[in-house]
Amino acid sequence: MHVLLRQLNRVRRDARLPRGRPASLAVRHVDAGSCNGCEHELQAAASPFYDLQRFGIGIVASPRHADILLVTGPVTTRMREALLAAYAAMPEPRLVAALGDCAMGCNVLGDPAALAEPLEELLPVAVRIPGCPPTPDAIAEGLLGALDGGLPRVA
Amino acid sequence: MTLAVAKPTAADVPLPLWRKAVAAALDGGGRFAGAYATDDGDELRWRVLVAHGALVRSLACRSAARRVPSVVDLAPAAGWDEREAHDLHGLGFDGHEPLRPLVDHPADPSAWTVPMTGEGVHDVAVGPIHAGVIESGHFRFHLVGERILALDARLFHKHRGLERAAQGGDADHGLAHVGRACAACHVASSVAYAQAVELAQGRRPSDDLRVARTLLLELERLYNHLNDVSAVCAGVGFAPGAMAFAALKERAQRLNARLTGHRFLFGSVAVGGSTLALSGGAARTAGEAVRSIGDDAAKAWRSLMFARSVQARLDGVGVLTRDDAVRLGAVGPAARASGVREDVRTTSPRLAYGDLAAAVPEAPAGDVRARLQVRALELESTCAVLGELLASGEIAPGGVVTAARDAPNFGTGLVESPRGATLCAVELDGDRVARVHLRTGSYANWPAVAHAAAGNLLPDFPLINKSFELCYACADR
Ligand code: SF4
């Protein structure tokens, strides 16, 4: 009886599996001056407990291969150029995501002289994942939202 | 109980006697622990801190001309500190030649790299953006073929000016900045800061607070060491080990969240207290969770020992000799792997470590294997410390008691972070933080990484780098 119920449950669960997400999402991460907390959680999102890859979301080595630029940290003056270069290297259509409160420009700590403009002023941010740092769950949710929302078409 | 009381009121050392004074302080086993400049408009004050166990001595000199004698030949570990003070405060150092930029990033590579010429010598530039999910920093390798002749690391891409931003506010404002210097060392940096402020205010932690902070520090070490073993496995492309230890790290972080409400223990350290409060039952449950993580880590470690593809990559790679470790001022697991038997935890009167001994592997060869072994040994001792403290029952947040009639307005805190000795110095002006300086284990160890990389093959660098597993964030601040 118990075994039957368990199987029934499993069948029900499987039936609820999302079918046919529209695409995969290649993510390129740029640390623009984080405290490393957001990186740890982004890595965790790709680790055994969360396994983002199974939704078609993968972290890629080059901006040339990326659909979405995932930025962490407030933008420091010393990372500004590298960040812009990474964005320029991406093929279109492309998205920019702000990962964490710092990248979103909330409660930013530091000396204004060492920080560049906020990310929002530098690049067109389309996805925002709040938290300090956002939990791996929140990161998964935010990225899946971007996947479901689709990538903007080039005009 | 003896406290690490520095003598802030001691008169400034006249410049002609500066080198002699520093040499005398270093004599008899003193360890260069940090240095920082304070700008009061007309004059610059330069302060050097030397640690003898838990005791931190402070020496200062002043210069209106913004030039002081370098001590880099007496304490090579001061190299980065002097370069930083030059870039951030315009302080010159007589005898430090060439004084290459460190925090400043001039466009011309010859301004900051070691010149390397000869047949077949070429450069490979990597970063600041790396291929994986990694912090930003730039490495310039000088190679012949694939062999590394020398490595110039150009960090500070993540410099946020946190020390400067922390100045002028109250102690909590300072804590927010110091705590966000680095997530992976959040507790260590925060405790070092809190200790420094408390000492400056003439207060010391109660017994409960010592226990609470020790618990938090070891919870931080637990998830970090699990992470670092995973990282070394990833560095040799051994996915089963990387995944097993990443999963264990996740369990440790979920325990953090259960105990403090935050996976990185953010907000758990306060000046004059902590927010950690556990009932006897909660402490026991946490103790069981730690034991089960420790048991599973031991099992995962044993299977790693039999994974030949991993074992074949560890020996003789990225060697840091004992002499070099001492000369360069390496600290923490990296130094212990080279046979330096030092661990700030063994002399921490403001924490509750009992008779903990520094972990040194049987064959401290200073290579990747030895650095990995130190992590395994410390995972055991960390679980033991946590188990013991949690078994003693209820955990209270604790507080501080007044220890001195007059507040000295200057204090230092010294804590063993997962990466080694982290020092924080604080100068108070009434309720305001006039100056704060944070020198983390990562900051101390970066020069050793560059040194250990020389002579190895370029493809081994990720592995060597992972075996140190330093933070960029807490070095850059
Ligand atoms: S949002 Fe929080 S965790 Fe992320 S980089 Fe900023 S301070 Fe660190």
TrEMBL record, chain A:
Record carries keyword 4Fe-4S: yes
Keyword list, A-Z: 4Fe-4S, Iron, Iron-sulfur, Metal-binding
Gene3D superfamilies: 3.40.50.12280
Molecular function in Gene Ontology: 4 iron, 4 sulfur cluster binding; metal ion binding
InterPro entries for the chain: Complex_I_20kDa-like, NADH_UbQ_OxRdtase-like_20kDa
Cofactor(s) annotated in UniProt: [4Fe-4S] cluster
Pfam families referenced in this protein's UniProt entry, alphabetically: Oxidored_q6 (PF01058)
Signal peptide: none
Domain spans labelled NADH:ubiquinone oxidoreductase-like 20kDa subunit: 35-144
Family affiliation: Belongs to the complex I 20 kDa subunit family.
Protein name as catalogued: Formate hydrogenlyase subunit 7
Native source organism of the sequence: Capillimicrobium parvum
Lineage: Bacteria, Bacillati, Actinomycetota, Thermoleophilia, Solirubrobacterales
Gene of this entry: hycG
From TrEMBL, chain B:
InterPro entries found in the cross-reference section: ComplexI_49kDa-like (IPR052197), NADH_Q_OxRdtase_suD (IPR001135), NADH_quin_OxRdtase_su_C/D-like (IPR037232), NADH_UbQ_OxRdtase_30kDa_su (IPR001268), NiFe-Hase_large (IPR029014)
Annotated GO MF terms: NAD binding; NADH dehydrogenase (ubiquinone) activity; oxidoreductase activity, acting on NAD(P)H; quinone binding
Domain of life: Bacteria
PANTHER family on file: FORMATE HYDROGENLYASE SUBUNIT 5-RELATED, HYDROGENASE-4 COMPONENT G
Keywords recorded for this protein, A-Z: NAD, Oxidoreductase
Protein name (record): Formate hydrogenlyase subunit 5
Signal peptide: none
Domain NADH:ubiquinone oxidoreductase 30kDa subunit as annotated: residue spans: 61-104
Transmembrane residue ranges: none
Domain NADH-quinone oxidoreductase subunit D per the UniProt entry, residue ranges: 242-391, 413-477
Organism for this UniProt entry: Capillimicrobium parvum
